[in-house]
Each structure stands twice: as C-alpha cells, then as structure tokens.
Amino acid sequence: MTRQLDAQSLLELAQAAEARIVPDCSCTKASLEGWQSQPLSLDETRLVQVGTLLNPELAEPTYSEYLPEGTNYWSAEAPVAPYFFPYNRCDVWQCSACNRLYLRYTEGGGYFVDRRIRALHARLITDVSE
Q1: b/e map of 26-54 (b: 16 or more CB within 10 Å)?
Q2: For the chain, what are the domain ranges?
Q3: Mode of pairing for the β-strands spanning 47-52 and 113-119
C-alpha cells in the first residue's frame, strides 16, 4: 500500500531525504528543477515510490493551480502545493542511489500522454488549501 502524504508529511519526508543526499548521481544528468517531460536518460529502475499526494477520497482532484509571485507551472521556484494541480495528482519517488526525491504524474491531453517529473525540495513545499 502506498503511503498517503499531506503537506506536513511531505515536508518531513523531503527534509529527511535532503539530509541524506549523496552527490554526483546519474539521476541529476538532466535538470529537473521545474516540471519536465521525463527524460529518457533517467534510469527508472533506481526510482522507488515512497508515497502519493493523490487523495483517494476525491472523485476528481481540482485543476486549480497555486502560483503566487509571478511563478508559472514550469518555474523552478514554483511552490509545491500538495492540494493544487498538478501536485494533487503526483506520486513521490526516491532515487535508491542518492536519496533525492521526485514528484511524478502523467499529463494527458487529447492526443498525447506525457510523463512529467520534478525534483522535490523541502524549501518549496507550502501548506495552503483551497
């Protein structure tokens, strides 16, 4: 069973992971500071799911975004707001080699599916709700 995370437990998980990061891992070959299409160079076999932000009690999570201070969806400094899109559809993954955390979800459009990924940093996590 996947661990359900809220903003506080996500923050605690991120802080613990950041305290144990091992530098110079191959998972950092591509910059994943803001949302990106998952690069082919990322070795998925090293990623282990450690939690989810998807609330199973919600029939349809909101598509509202939380983007203050001129940030946008692609911004590396955009806050990670677990109750807002796209974070409310994310699973949390950890690199087994270096302990870095990543958020991942699948963006679906009319004619495409795009697996998106973003590095998770504790300093960006914010506990705001709708």
Answers
A1: ebeeeebeebbebeeebeeebbeebbbbb
A2: 7-124
A3: unpaired
User: What is the chain's length?
Assistant: 130
Note whether 93 and 104 are within 8 A (CB).
yes
pLDDT in tens, 98-130: 999 999 999 987 788 999 999 999 999 999 886
Give pLDDT tens digits for 69-96.
Answer: 889 999 999 999 999 999 999 999 999 9
Element (H, E) at 7: helix 7-18
Region at 88 (left for phi over 0; alpha for psi -120 to 50; beta for the rest): alpha
**What order do you get walking across the sheet with 36-37 strand by strand?**
36-37, 113-119, 101-108, 91-95, 47-52
Short-list 35, 68, 49, 47, CA closest to 4 = 49
